[in-house]
Amino acid sequence: MNVLHLGNEVLRQKAVSVPEVTDEIRELIRDMFVTMKEEDGIGLAAPQVGQSLRLFIVKADDGIDRVFINPQILQTSTEMCSYEEGCLSIPSVYEDVVRPERITVQALNERGRPFTLEAEGLLARVIQHENDHLDGILFIDRIDPKTKAKVEQKFAQRAEKQGL
Fold it and tell me: Catalytic positions, please?
């Protein structure tokens, strides 16, 4: 699978709900885990591989493969923290992003079973980052506007050079 980069319109679209967890969805999930590992990532959302579906996967610092289908963040902490983020769709760009320290998320797993997870630290951050992808939001939307503009200009120039 190819990871789409900044400038691709799919990354800015609001993804649609997964109506049913089918074998095709499970195959997509398996392929996404392979791609995420090949790209050395810790999270990957379906829109990043050209599938406008409300689905993402995570393998954060606890080493557990997690699948989130039709996720909803139910609660966020009032405590915020800043941490450097990057994104497979915006390679070689890393910026500090402020997000809630803890969250509660509800979703379906790869078997279509609902679960609720309370997460904190890196896991909470990765879930929020990937969940943003489902709404067409990229981490650069949460940084200083001047820095964001520079990043967007750099990627537009790169795409122009490649004839995209």
Answer: 130
Tens digit of each residue's pLDDT (9 = 90 or more) over 18-69: 999 999 999 999 999 999 999 999 999 999 999 999 999 999 989 999 999 9
76 CB-contact burial (10 Å; exposed 0-12 / middle 13-18 / buried 19+): middle
Task: Dihedral sign for Cα 127, 130, 136, 141, please.
Answer: positive
What residues form DSSP beta bridges with 149? Answer: none
Half-sphere exposure of 119 (CA within 13 A, CB side): 25
Fold of the domain spanning 9-161 = Peptide Deformylase (3.90.45)
pLDDT mean across residues, the chain: 95
* Closest CA relative to residue 6, chosen from 55, 47, 58: 47
Three-state DSSP class for 35?
helix
Give the dihedral of Cα atoms 53, 82, 99, 97; nearest 10 deg. Answer: -50
**Structural domain spans, the chain:** 9-161
